[in-house]
């Protein structure tokens, strides 16, 4: 793949629409620890990074672009974090609406769900145990490459 320094290097980059791009950037950096990388106009778009390889583009409203509608969930953004409790407190204290407090799941994750200032839902997750999909009634169709080296 060719390198282009004008776009985020991640393979999948969600583009989220907000009524106020600058307010969204301020919220995402304060609440979830994103880092603004590129600003495209004062209120048009921004590219943000999170973690080692995560990215999101914040876009303005216009044309066919609208933020989520109240009480209608169209997507959920899952972000892996090192400490879900710490990330939860940070997001909540910076204005995220709590939809689900941190909880341990049978599949080895500790998770919570929050909503941002425009209604986008953020699913924060931390691995707390290594659980084989088969141990919880699932089927591994094709293992993730990163896990083949570690589990054989």
Structure description:
Helices cover 19% and strands 32% of the residues. The strands form 2 sheets. It has a 4-stranded mixed β-sheet, covered by helices on one side. The chain has helices spanning 21-32, 84-93, 145-151; strands at 15-18, 35-40, 45-50, 54-60, 77-80, 97-104, 109-115, 121-127. The radius of gyration is 17 Å and the shape is globular. With 152 residues, it is an alpha/beta fold. It has one domain: 2,3-Dihydroxybiphenyl 1,2-Dioxygenase, domain 1 (Roll), CATH 3.10.180.10. It has 3 helices and 8 strands, in the order E-H-E-E-E-E-H-E-E-E-H. The chain starts with 14 loop residues before the first strand and ends with a helix.
What is the ordering of alpha helices and beta strands? Answer: EHEEEEHEEEH
**Helix-and-strand structural type:** alpha/beta
Low-confidence stretches: none
Shape annotation: globular
Proportion of residues in β-strands: 25-35%
Mean pLDDT: 91
CATH superfamily: 2,3-Dihydroxybiphenyl 1,2-Dioxygenase, domain 1
Q: Just give the CATH class.
A: Alpha Beta
Number of helices: 3
For the sheet with most strands, the description reads:
4 strands, mixed
Whole-number radius of gyration?
A: 17 Å
